[in-house]
Design brief:
heterotrimer, A alpha+beta (407), B alpha+beta (409), C alpha/beta (234), A: 407 residues, alpha+beta, 16 helices, 55% helix, elongated, B: 409 residues, six-stranded mixed beta barrel, two-stranded antiparallel ribbon, 12 strands, 53% helix, 19% strand
Amino acid sequence: MNLTLSLAWRNVWRHKRRTWLTTSAMTLCNVVLIFMMSLQAGSYLSMINNTLSMFSGHLQVQHPQYLNDPKPRYAITNAIHIADTLRKQGINASTRGIGFALISSETRAKPMQVIGVEEQFEATVSNIPGTLRKGNYLTSDNPYGVVISELAATLLHADIGSELTLLGSGQDDSFAASILTVTGIYDSGMSDIDRNMIFIRLEDFQDIFSFGKSASQVVITSESIFDVESLAKRVDALIGKEQNLAVVEWNDLVPGLKQAIQSDMMSALFIYLVLIIVVVFSVLNNQLMAVLERQREYGILIALGVRPNKLLFLLLMETTILVMLGLIIGVTLGTAIVEYTANVGIAFEGMEEMNAKFNLPARIFPALHPLVILAGPLLVALGSILATLYPAFKLQRLSPLASRYKA
Amino acid sequence: MSAKLPMRTMLSLASRNLLRNKERSAIMAGSLTIAVAAMIFLIAMMRGMMGDMQTQTIKGLPGDIQIHHPTYRNDPDIEYHFSPTNEHLRSVLNSPLIRAWSERIKVNAMISSERANRGVEIIAFNPAQEGRDAYGNINLIDGQWLEQGSGIIVGKALLEKLETDLGKRVVLMTRALDGNTAEIGLPIIGVYRAEMRASEESQIYIALDKAQHWLGLDSYIHEIAIYVNDQQQLSTIQSQLQQARPDLEVMRWDELIPYLSTMLKTSDAMITVLIVIVFVTLSFGLVNTLVMAIFERTKEIGLMLALGLKPLQISLLIMSEMLVLLLCGLFLGDIIASSILYLLRDGIDLSQFADGLAMMGVSASLTPIFKLDDIILCNSIVILLGLASSLIPAWKASHLKPIEALYRD
Amino acid sequence: MTKDSSLYAVQCRNLCRHYQQGEQTIMGLDNVNIDIQDGEFICLTGPSGSGKTTLLNHLGGLDTPNSGELSIAGQSLSNLTPSELSDLRLNNIGFVFQSYNLIPVLSAIENIEFILMMQGVGKQRRGQQALAMLNEVGLQGLEHRRPAELSGGQQQRVAVARAIVSQPALVLADEPTANLDSVTAEQLLALFQNLNKKLNTTFVIASHDPRVQNYATRLIRMQDGKIIEDSASE
């Protein structure tokens, strides 16, 4: 082993208790950082996935006005053609028309959002068809069928086979009216969707709401949240020739989601920062003590002709060893805890109701990702090494005599 | 006679010992200061956020307590109404415990302008009888408040969606009590802004008499919203109301929105856990400093023992050193945190996160809540943890053999 | 507090103390027997490593023998708890150690006051007593200096002042004149003698200094942990 390294190693162990105390502080901090960050990453990912895969998708092709002003008249005229083009490239895409109408059963009436879907493709972009509790999803054999939520079924006093009257206005402000038969009942578990949305076939929708061949949006889903940007570029290129179209990403489709995550992250980051500062101060103190108690020794080394630079390097190496101890133990423990909890999930009393509010499952599963695991510990390490520059600077100013005669 | 070591001497010795290694003490006190200031700040922010969430929720419900027909909350249909004319109920409602109350009709309806239509919730109340509380959490930005029999107040967002304007007529369509579709045309007399965009888009206000007449409800209503003077009295008032009308459902806000109280409790627990984690991490550093201080001063401790100081007094001396360090850090931390909170007393603008905060039920301006209790709690946790962490070094120091300590190299 | 001087007679019977240093066993005390009467002025002499300091430490209850019996006023020290030993040292014994004597964060006068404070003497009285004591050892004007700001001899004198300020029954001093010039040394020894005569204070002083032997009423010579000469037994 290199002599400097072995000297540094021995120096680190001169005060065993001090070294272990500092290492423990770093380890505790690293474990907490790893666990908390993985837990957060896990809950954010499932929040994003649950929210997006239910209805909005990761990307949508829309009329440029539609995002800010979702009116029937801001429609895409060749939506199905676009969806077909994308599907030929292996991208999950489906077209939707969206309108408002008063939906009445025999005894009840509720204003609701009517979604016209391409019934054969809807399941590739949305989980709602998969949450069917009763009856069948929309098929071309069943024209003017409608799928409603369990909640809507209760509120409307309707069931499979019930007839619902639809009253609204079409794309051209004409009167839109129809009678629909309930073929299926879904339960998405998301109250915004359950309370407001009913689904019919796009063909029927275009007919009822006078949409002609147009639609409101083409919904696209991505394999993973991390691929959305590149997918957006691909979609943009594929539809590039078309005028008057916008490719909108999830953070614009559901602006609250990203901000909710960001504001939650802010307060967490604040705590992490405080924790890191506290630990960095501990390491700084440790190294400062080491330098102060070894002044005489350093004086001798300098008197022997060792350059102060070399001493600085030695000190930084000691810090690095110290920090690596905390990092290795912390990461090992932290990863083990995350690995374990990632399999079983975490839940506590009352969390289910709270999580449902944020589209989270009843148990949270921390995400095991190298970046999330290493980010905190690396920051601790970097901060500690930077902090050591202060005692190192003091060391630089030592003169051989002064340090020899100082007690 | 036993050795006497007055507290004052102990503290003076402790301070002098801390000053022997100024840098080391400064680093530890600084680290304490940062941690304490940050924690107090964070607690105040969280309190502000949670308090706001609670206020917004109660305002948005609205009411600290609501009274409904027992079926209404599961099936908010026009038919689940009740009659508020009941002497017993009136006397409870008009008791001094209750700050305000309002009778309301709530029905879903379609609103149509010339250009568009939307689903909305109609909220009807008696504008002559109740104050502004009845409107929930809204600010009128144009036009006027409701009067008996007048038109309709809509949100700015809805106004834009409907592409209509103040003074124009809109048509409301819903099912009346008799089951037939009822329509009414009303002028827009007021436009409001709400903290929550969702409610701005979906809630409209009309006068109670108009709605009762239009929907065939006579004097029936769907909801009584009640504001109390003192949150502590909530359960008492609830049971009084329940006694007055056993046939109705009387619920507190925390029963109406169970996730909120869970969330408030969870965040309280989370805060405590995080504070403890931060300070446990910090206490490793503190213990380290103390252990080193004792290590450097072994001879001195030996001398004190030889002179007749008791082991317990040595322990106390070491602990008072920790105490002085803690008090310095806490004092500075408290001052810094209080100054920051004082500067932020008018609230922090978080409008860039408005939508996300709205999703959590928080408004875009956050005012930290400075509670003495929290500061005392935070300071006590630090002092307790700090003193607890000094126990082991203090114990070790007191068990030094005077002769070995004194002659150690 | 009354000091019935007859209570502080010291008796050592077959005192043995050995230390382990690596493989070697070092005999600190080897079968030591002494009787010390009240009011004696004893000079303990012998080469370094002969056991002088070890004996002083035993007499002060700072060290415990491996075997043998040490009793003060008929009471065996081995029966006392550490806490009782602390009280004994505080109230009845004054120490002057060889090297590390003073608390570094306290000034000269505070170091002396510290003892009085522990004994429960009031603030005003202890200030006066401490100042008077400093004057007696010739340190007037230096009372507010910290130990680091005093010379070795000055530190030694502060330590002596501290040892005798509370008028203990027994003063144990390890080379108290080592860092002093001859004039100061004579003054200090005269002070000891004065106390010895006036208050019947017992002094046990470990020293090579022939001047100390001049003042002593009894001379004990040690070598390799044994007493090889005791003027009292002649």
